[in-house]
Amino acid sequence: MSLAPAPIGAEGQDPVTGEGPEGLSPYRRFSREEWASLRADTPLTLSADDLTRLQSINDPISVEEVVAIYLPLSRLLSLYVAATQGLFKATQRFLLAERERKGPYIIGLAGSVAVGKSTTGRILAALLARWPNTPKVDLVTTDGFLLPNAELAAGGIMERKGFPESYDTAALLRFLHDVKAGHPRVSAPLYSHLVYDRVPGEERVVESPDILIVEGLNVLQPARLPRDGTAIPFVSDFFDFSIYLDGHEDDLHRWYVMRFMKLRETAFRDPRSYFRKYAEVDEAEALAIADRLWTTINLPNLRENILPTRQRAGLILSKGASHRIESVALRRL
Which pLDDT score is estimated for 14? Predict the structure, then answer.
């Protein structure tokens, strides 16, 4: 199964945008160079030191990548946010409800394990916070809405952590509803990657941001539609814009294993780490474990749940083998 961008006409269809020989697609596809030209005069407000601080393990990011990809994206999002603010004011005038609080502009960020969502989210948040009309930007991951390990174990789904059924979707929907409704203070459960579980009694508090980025594996996945038409909200119903970070399946596999091996030499060695046992095996066994975890858990989740949501995104960023974004697909308005 290939997830890589393919030229138009390969087997009759572009696998990313859906465009075929007849030119039918809801997306406009840009090469890296075409997208970079849309930066206009957007200033670079991040330094090399900033990038070092913002990037995740095994997710290289360069100043050139920020200039070519993320500055044009931040410019586009700034224009979208400003337009949405104007639309909100027009709606309030129509409803004669001038005093209603404007909720934040919510951006969903989806993609596979190891594709680099965390780095992308942090860079976008840092860039958008430097725009004059969006001084407060927050980033929340859906990890905090994973069911506690005790519940996953009791339900026999510990090996399906990260699959849709492993999340407290009702709590995530309530969180997004309250944020979108403009509640001044909304909290989310806090998750620790060190202990691989929620932190009891700890919360991540969001206080009236101008923009909220919500990052997670399955944030674009729709629920099963009921035959009787009962209203069932999707997580993505609360998004104003959505991004899917894409990569070839073989690259994702390789990046996952490389990240696992780096964590084995760093975070896994912490005595508190849930994965401490993996730091104590030899390299060959560690490689075999990483490969098994990818093949039995992360790959099925990618194929069954994550990749099928790609076409629901407003923007698709397609990465090459070196983590460099090679093309951009923007949904037509």
Answer: 80
Contact criterion met (CB below 8 Å) for 134 and 210? yes
Is residue 213 scored above 50 in pLDDT? yes
Closest CA to 159 of 293, 311, 318: 293
Residue 297 carries which side chain, given as an amino acid letter?
I
- Please tell me what DSSP assigns to residue 146: B
Hey, what are 264's tokens? 């084995």
Task: Return d(Cα 261, Cα 251) in angstroms, integer.
Answer: 15
Contacts of 206 (CB under 8 A, 6+ apart): 138, 140, 179, 185, 186, 187, 188, 212
267-285 exposure pattern, b = at least 16 Cβ within 10 A, e = fewer? bbeeeebbbeebbeeeeee
pLDDT tens-digit series, residues 82-111: 999 899 888 888 888 666 777 899 999 999
The pair of structure tokens assigned to 30 is: 């840009």
Mean pLDDT (the chain, rounded) = 91
Sequence-separated (6 or more) residues with CB below 8 Å from residue 155: 147
The domains of the chain are located at 28-221+234-331
pTM over 0.85? The answer is: yes
Close Cβ partners of 241 (under 8 Å, ≥ 6 residues apart):
77, 80, 105, 106, 107, 108, 314, 315
Query: Which CATH number is associated with domain 28-221+234-331?
Result: 3.40.50.300
Q: How far is CA 14 from the centre of its chain?
A: 23
pLDDT value of position 15? 78
For Cα atoms 90, 91, 94, give the angle at the middle one, nearest 5 degrees. Answer: 90
Token look-up 């946010």 returns 81
